[in-house]
Fold:
Amino acid sequence: MNIFHSATLRLTMWYMVILTVLSLLFSVIVFSLASREFYRPLGPRTVETVLQQLEPDTDIAGIRNARAQEAEHHLLSNLIVFNIAALSLGGLLSYVLARRTLRPIEEAMSAQARFSSDAAHELRTPLSVMQSEIEIALRDKKATKVSHEETLGSNLDEVHRLRALTDRLLMLANAKELQLGPASLEDVAIDAVGNVIPLAQAKKISIDNQVGGIKALANGESLTDALTILLDNAIKYSPEKSHVIVSAATKGKRVLLTVRDNGPGIDPKDQPHIFDRFYRADTSRSKTNVEGHGLGLSIAKRIMAAHNGDITLESRPGRGSAFTLHLDKA
Ligand code: ADP
Structure:
C-alpha cells in the first residue's frame, strides 16, 4: 500500500477518534443535564397550579415519573441516532480532510523524487562519457601520449560540464531567502554583461547595455546571477552576429529589467514549461547542440521569487525573445 494511502487512513482514524470522543462527551453531558431536569421536583407554585386542575386522588408523582422515563428514553435514542449520523458523516469528512491535508506533502515529495532522478540523470551522462573514454584509453596498449592527452582533454570538458551543473544545483538550493537592500541596476547590468562577454565575443554577438541609474530593492549578487542567466541564454540560442539588448524601466512601484534577443524565439507550447527544472525545449535538446541542463530559468525564477518579484516572457517563434525581471523599486 502506498505510504500516503496508509497515512491518509491513519489520519482519518485520528480525526474519527477525536470526533467520537467529542460526540460521546457532548452526548453524556446533554443526557445527564436533561435527565436531572426531568426528575427535578416541581416548584411549589407549579404543584399548586397542577393540583387545582386534577382529580384529588391523582398520582402526580407516578405520572411525572412515567413521563420523565419516556422523555429520557426518547432523548437516549435521539442521541444514539445523532451519534451514528455524526460519526458516519464525520468519517467521510475526516477522510476528505485527511486527503486534503496530505496532498501538498505528497506533491512536494513526488516533485523531490522527480528532481533527484532528473539530477541523477544529468550527472550520469558526463560520468558515463568519461568512464567509457578512460576504459578505452586503458585497454589500448598502443596508445600514444597524444591520444592520452586527447582523452584527458575530453575528460576535462566533461568535468567542466559537471562543475557547471553542480554550481547550478547549488544555486537552486541556495536561492531561497535573500537579504534585500537598495541595489543599482546599472551595476548589476555591468557585472552581468561582464560575465557573458567571452561567450558573446566567441559568437560575435553585440550586447547593447541601456540600463541607467535606477535603484531596486534587491540582493545585488543574486540579481546579477538572474540577469546573467538571461543574457547567457540570449547569447546561447541566438545566431552569430546578432544583437542582444538589456534595458531597464520603471512602472509604478516596480522596476523592469529586460533582456531582448533576435534569436529563434520560443514555441508557445514550450513557453509554459521553460521555467520548470530540467525542461529544455526540443529545439535546444535535439535539433541544435546548445549545451545546458534546463536549470537556468528555474534558478532565475527562484531568485525572483525571493525578491518578491517575477519573471515574464514575450516571444514568438522566429521573432526573438524578451525576458523581463520584475521587482520593487528601492
Ligand atoms: P538551458 O538553457 O540550460 O537549457 P534554461 O532553463 O535556461 O535551460 O532554459 C530552458 C529552455 O528555454 C532552453 O532549453 C531553451 O529551449 C529555452 N530558452 C531559454 N532562453 C531562450 C532564448 N533566449 N531563446 C530561445 N530559447 C530559449
In short: Residues 233-234, 237, 261, 263-264, 266, 274, 279-281, 283-284, 292-298, 321 surround adenosine-5'-diphosphate (CB under 6 Å).
